[in-house]
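Posting for a labmate who doesn't have an account.
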Amino acid sequence: GRLDSRLRLAPCGNVEPYLPPGARLWGRTRIGLRCIDGISRWNVSLPVTVNAYGNAWVIKGTVPSGTTLTEADVVEAEVNWAEETNPILRDPALWVGQVATRLLTTGQAVRQGMVKPAQVFQAGAQVRVVAQGAGFQVSSMAQALSVGVVGQVARVRLDSGKVSSGTVLDMRTVKIDL
């Protein structure tokens, strides 16, 4: 970047660069410059762009919102990781089988926030509940009271009528830790 051309700074024998509070050296950001040895002290902010290139998975066609992502939807390419603030999802296990949260277009690197876990069952569905404790495991059937999304918490009503919450493991299984 460049300093504002209208700015008139006094000569300085020692300019100290610093990172302003809350600033990150990633993408479009700012660094501070302050005069610590001069006729008059000054402090300015300089816009900078930090690029960080590396391989990532890139969308190779149009993927509509709500579509489940597969390996056929992407190609590996070198991209600027610092172009956006959301982290790159480098490991396919983090995005394969996930659902696009918005329209994804050709050339976009797969990043956090672009995908979310898929819903695997609706409220009212019959699911298997696995309850685990120290040294034992019990399973039974239950009715889902909320939608099931892999890795997230879902509420279920057991045959006894008791309502409990557990983590969705797959299309038909909810795990309750005791």
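Reply:
Got it, the structure tokens are right above this. The chain has a mean pLDDT of 92.
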